[in-house]
């Protein structure tokens, strides 16, 4: 079941209250899970139970995504705002320097949390920020088209498409290598999450200026990339390794951009190994 927490952050216009929806279960070292742009915390459902067997797992809806409300007026969606907000969330939940795993946007945020020494370890699955300008434009155009499609399709059409493997592929093959494995209910829910994400446009706009160019010293880092990632191409993983020479680079055979659904056991093992 989802829980909700509210806490105060600073902003250029003074203190503001942020509310975040999350799911927490398990025991052991704390592990924070961060999804990608336009997605929601349920992206982690395929690996959630595997992780809770060994960790105290907190899967969050980032502000402006899933069930979490938009950031307050005057608070931007750039890294300078979102990273401290996640730090304040951990403080409010009583989590001191958790391990963190993130996918896409969440992977970029995880690396930034590592750079700020706010976490114990980082697992970044196809993280954003290691693109060329051409690759970024391609990814952003693809994401924008996906969101436009989600907005244009009426709910009955989304539900009808989700009932067949071909329909699920039409809706989600950009992010999953094995979309037929996703349940119809999950596909409907994530299509609606993409459509209704209040933070999508501002997050995408903030991403135009993002390149991750700094090392993350003193923190164990794993960068993992799906061999069939169609959104952020796997050569970006090689670039990440050059930027983060101390990081472990892991190939995820047969996995797409959101690998948790394509190979839950492998992804869970990569995260547990990094956070061990």
TrEMBL record:
Residues in the signal sequence: none
A GO molecular function held by the record: hydrolase activity
Query: What Pfam families has UniProt attached to this entry?
Result: Abhydrolase_6 (PF12697)
The UniProt record lists the keyword Hydrolase? yes
Domain AB hydrolase-1 per the UniProt entry, residue ranges: 31-269
Q: Does Hydrolase appear among the keywords?
A: yes
InterPro entries in UniProt: AB_hydrolase_1, AB_hydrolase_fold
What keywords are assigned to this protein?
Hydrolase
What is the protein name for this chain? Alpha/beta fold hydrolase
Species: Streptomyces melanogenes
């Amino acid at each position: 079941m989802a829980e909700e927490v509210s806490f105060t952050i600073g902003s250029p216009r003074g203190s503001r209250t942020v509310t975040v929806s999350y799911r927490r279960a398990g025991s052991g070292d704390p592990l924070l899970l961060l999804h990608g742009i336009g997605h929601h915390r349920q992206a982690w459902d395929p690996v959630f139970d595997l992780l809770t067997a060994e960790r105290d797992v907190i899967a969050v809806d980032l502000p402006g995504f899933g069930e979490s409300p938009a950031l307050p007026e005057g608070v931007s969606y750039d890294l300078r705002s979102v990273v401290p907000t996640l730090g304040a969330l951990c403080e409010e939940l009583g989590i001191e320097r958790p391990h963190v795993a993130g996918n896409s946007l969440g992977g970029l945020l995880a690396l930034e949390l590592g750079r700020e020494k706010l976490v114990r370890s980082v697992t970044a699955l196809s993280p954003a920020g290691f693109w060329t300008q051409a690759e970024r434009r391609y990814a952003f155009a693809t994401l924008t088209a996906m969101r436009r499609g989600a907005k244009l399709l009426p709910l009955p059409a989304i539900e009808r498409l989700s009932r067949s493997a071909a329909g699920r592929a039409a809706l989600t093959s950009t992010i999953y290598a094995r979309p037929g494995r996703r349940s119809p209910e999950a596909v409907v829910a994530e299509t609606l999450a993409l459509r209704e994400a209040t933070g999508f446009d501002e997050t995408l706009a903030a991403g135009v200026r993002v390149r991750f160019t700094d090392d993350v010293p003193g923190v164990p880092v794993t960068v993992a990339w799906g061999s069939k990632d169609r959104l952020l191409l796997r050569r970006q993983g090689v670039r990440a390794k050059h930027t983060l020479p101390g990081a472990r680079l892991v190939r995820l055979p047969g996995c797409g951009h959101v690998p948790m659904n394509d190979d839950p056991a492998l992804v869970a093992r990569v995260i547990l190994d990094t956070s061990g």
